[in-house]
Design brief:
The protein has about 240 residues and is α/β, with parallel strands linked by helices. The chain has one domain: Rossmann fold (3-Layer(aba) Sandwich). It has nine helices and eight strands. Strands 1-2-3-8 form a four-stranded parallel sheet, with helices on both faces. A two-stranded antiparallel sheet has the order 4-7. Helix 3 packs across helix 6. Mean pLDDT is about 80; it is low at about 120-125 and about 135-145.
């Protein structure tokens, strides 16, 4: 069984499409989790100069991909709609392999988006610092600004809002729901708002009431096994 998150799911599907003759006896199913199988408009937004008028939005998206989820900006070249259409038309997925597409939506609630207004900078309070070499005053007033950590959910919410306003598409912040659905697959859509980084960082949380990525992966793989059994039974019944 294979399970791939984000571009990992796209790469796994590509491997099955190209090397199925070598892998058909080794791979029994594939689950794509928040994977841009159909491509993503963000690829063009980031790679094409002038595609986005708001440079700050573009910087946030580049920061998310390169720094937070440790992606390679060059990998986006394979995720434009043109490149994905060209590849899919040339390399079809195997027909009989069980497939699952998992996608989710990021929250764009005002409370989540509002945190972005508080994280660009932080104003230090007045602090007494020694004023070396100056006899006029023993202290100086500090009023500088320092960078602080960006709340990941807020950054994802900004990207999700961008995709909704610009393209009219709901997304997890990086991948639209429409692009994450592989034709012919069983689609899993959680009711809870989960952004693209949830699968990577959720297991660090200890709150038992929050969804856990490890448990979700286990459930998806279990579903793949059941789908495989159903397909096998269907093939056997068709022979009778």
């Amino acid at each position: 069984m294979l399970l791939g998150h984000s571009k990992g799911g796209v790469d796994a599907a590509a491997a099955l499409s190209v090397y199925w003759s070598d892998l058909k006896d080794k791979v029994a199913g594939l689950a794509l989790v928040q994977s841009p199988y159909g491509g993503t408009p963000l690829a063009s937004d980031i790679l094409c100069e002038g595609q986005i008028a708001d440079e700050e939005i573009q910087k946030i998206m580049e920061f998310l991909i390169c720094k937070l989820i440790k992606g390679d900006i060059r990998a986006l070249e394979d995720l434009t709609y043109e490149k994905r259409k060209e590849f899919i038309m040339k390399h079809k997925l195997p027909e009989n392999i069980p497939l699952i597409s998992f996608h989710s939506e990021a929250s764009i609630a005002p409370g989540v988006l509002a945190t972005m207004t508080h994280i660009a900078h932080a104003e230090l309070p007045w602090l007494p610092f020694p004023n070396f070499g100056n006899e006029e005053s023993d202290n100086v007033q500090a009023g500088c600004q320092v960078p602080v950590v960006i709340p990941l959910s807020a950054a994802m919410a900004v990207c999700a809002l961008h995709l909704q306003l610009r393209y009219g598409e709901k997304s997890d912040g990086l991948v639209t729901c429409r692009d994450a659905e592989v034709p012919g697959s069983v689609v899993v859509r959680p009711d809870k708002k989960l952004d693209h980084a949830w699968m990577v960082y959720s297991s660090r949380k200890k709150n038992p009431s929050e969804p856990d990525a490890c448990e979700m992966c286990e459930a998806l793989l279990t579903l793949l096994v059941e789908l495989g059994k159903m397909k096998q039974e269907a093939r056997e019944n068709s022979k009778d």
